[in-house]
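re the bet — no i am not wrong, look at it urself. input seq straight from the record:
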Amino acid sequence: MGLIRKTLSTILLSGAGGAGGFAFWTRNSRFVPIASDDPIFSSAAYLRNNPNQNPQTKDLCVRRVPLAKIKPQLLEKEGEGKLVEAFCAGVWGGLGYAYQRRYLEKKYRNDTTTAHQLWDTRELLESSYDIGTQITDHFEVVSKTPSSIVVRCGDSPLKTAVRDSDGLFEMGVEIKRDEGVAEFRLKSVFYKGLGKADAAPMPSHVEFAHRLYTKLWMESAVRNVVL
């Protein structure tokens, strides 16, 4: 929570021009309900790492962008493959993740256990995010399709067993050519993996801060795909 709060404070006091500027900058990102039968809840990563089906903190942020504003090279081939990779790269290599990346780098980057992971901005922007890719010792790609990339979060990817704090984060894109837009989606599901929980893992004030952070990531990621 402290890291999220520090990141948001840094942005609000600098480029976003305060709370009003941040609200205006992120005005096109909106949250919508996640369906109870969303595929993420039947995915292998979710079922394996939430064995007791503990309650979740979950949200889905959506942002629509006209196709005319998207870099043409990302739309050259059929499907969303190149576009979702660029969107994902924008999340991890963009402004929204910069502070957290530097924080994690100082704590966990080394020449032995985490040398294989993505750390530098350039490699974060250039990666294709194939399954198994590990990001700043806090995320690992566990699923990739032509329209979505899912990472496991909550702890180091070096800890492969069920964790006390765990979650999945999905970056998705759907090209709606009949409407002339691409719909970008950031989906989060957090849960307690170990033991039995009676309540969702995030209290309301932490969930609120997380949603602001998600909107920051969304705007930062979209910057990497538009002209």
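see?? Helices lie at 2-12, 18-25, 44-49, 81-93, 95-108, 121-126, 204-223. told u. also The radius of gyration is 17 Å. so pay up
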